[in-house]
């Protein structure tokens, strides 16, 4: 790259919210890690999820090294778990594992993909507020390194399973207890998982005349010989851009750890502070900086332990979006373009693409905002106020609420939406029986399919009875 930001072949990196490999060439078309989007569309079709492997790996490395450095500075260690719910394919699991991350799974399906990728069970975690017996049994059979229990009922369910499964002499199952700290952080209520009035975790708030549900669960785990208490887990929300919540949550979790220690003499080794690190979705948005957040979290933990007179625990974190979100974009082909006059006299250009809420539900689900550009060419036409919409039978089928696109945007243009790597594919559906797009990786000038496009035959194969 030259001093003014141009690449050696004269292209210009688009910068955030795009991945580092996204460059607009001198011919006006965009390349991802050296591959022209027109070639991607011709080879793989649209819509397609496109992943910039080098960018994803660099983010995994950045989080790992930031937290390792910051934790070493305060005198403890850390494990970084990639939250597979953001996007899990075998290749993605291999990449993050190769970068030294572990993998956090939240269902039997995610567990199966991570195991199939060759991630050792010991490097996996299993989450879930309603894990099935099958899922728990698979976790036990495959030696999952930590099962994060989410309710009192589950403590007993898991302990009973271990007893039935392994008998009295078997090794105890490694367990963390997920607590809700009362810290509310993140972009939207639906993705802010630390509220008390929600389904996840066990509250730290004391019950009148008794212990908090969180302490009760910890005591129950300690009392069951079939379980080995590894630590305490907290996840305060998602798309967090103000890091102060992490420090408050850490203090509360460490106070709980001290209380358990005082009551039972058991000092848990590990504290997991979850994921939720925010990324840029729009130009000008500033993502959380891994070095800064790592320093703040490590320092908050060190300060709280000093104040409580307790030794430092090992830390773990679970970023998902911050690793994979910015590394992905979705490539669409523009179809219908329709100007619509608004009540205030303005005109909004509705630009329909060949996907929509089935490949990215986040705008419809919780009003998430994205950025889009026409990527197959540049244009001198004056920009217009546009809304990018999908092809589904829902007026809420919006891909990008508001964006300026060239006034001559037209059918056949390729349009890319930035930062769709996380929670796009993983939350996709077959609504209107659309077939899910492929996941295509681009690495050093080569593209390859990680997950193939679904076909109508796939849909028909699931539909097993004609009457
Ligand atoms: C327990 C837990 N860990 C980690 C994550 C990952 O969050 P993010 O992708 O925002 O980093 C989530 C997301 O919901 C979660 O529930």
Automatic annotation (TrEMBL):
Cofactor(s) this protein requires = pyridoxal 5'-phosphate
Top-level taxon: Bacteria
* Record keywords: Amino-acid biosynthesis, Decarboxylase, Lyase, Lysine biosynthesis, Pyridoxal phosphate
| Entry annotated with the keyword Amino-acid biosynthesis | yes
Against CDD domains, the record matches this protein to: PLPDE_III_DapDC (cd06828)
The EC number of this protein is 4.1.1.20
Q: Which PROSITE patterns match?
A: ODR_DC_2_1, ODR_DC_2_2
Involved pathway(s): Amino-acid biosynthesis; L-lysine biosynthesis via DAP pathway; L-lysine from DL-2,6-diaminopimelate: step 1/1
Q: Which reaction does it catalyse?
A: meso-2,6-diaminopimelate + H(+) = L-lysine + CO2
> Binding positions for substrate?
321, 362, 366, 394, 423
Domain Orn/DAP/Arg decarboxylase 2 N-terminal, chain residue ranges per copy: 56-324
Q: Which Gene3D superfamilies match?
A: Alanine racemase, Lyase, Ornithine Decarboxylase, Chain A, domain 1
Q: Which InterPro entries match?
A: Ala_racemase/Decarboxylase_C, DAP_deCOOHase_LysA, De-COase2_CS, De-COase2_N, De-COase2_pyr-phos_BS, Orn/DAP/Arg_de-COase, PLP-binding_barrel
For the keyword Transferase, the answer is: no
Among the Pfam families in the record, one is Orn_Arg_deC_N
User: Which residues are modified to N6-(pyridoxal phosphate)lysine?
Assistant: 85
* One Gene Ontology molecular-function label: diaminopimelate decarboxylase activity
- The enzyme class is lyase
Q: Which residues bind pyridoxal 5'-phosphate?
A: 276, 318-321, 423
Subunit notes for this chain? Answer: Homodimer.
Q: What biological function has been recorded for the protein in this entry?
A: Specifically catalyzes the decarboxylation of meso-diaminopimelate (meso-DAP) to L-lysine.
Q: Which PANTHER family match?
A: DIAMINOPIMELATE DECARBOXYLASE, GROUP IV DECARBOXYLASE
Member of which family? Answer: Belongs to the Orn/Lys/Arg decarboxylase class-II family. LysA subfamily.
Q: HAMAP family in the record, alphabetically?
A: LysA
According to UniProt, the name of this protein is: Diaminopimelate decarboxylase
**Species, as recorded:** Cellulomonas iranensis
Q: What is the lineage of its organism?
A: Bacteria, Bacillati, Actinomycetota, Actinomycetes, Micrococcales
Annotated gene: lysA
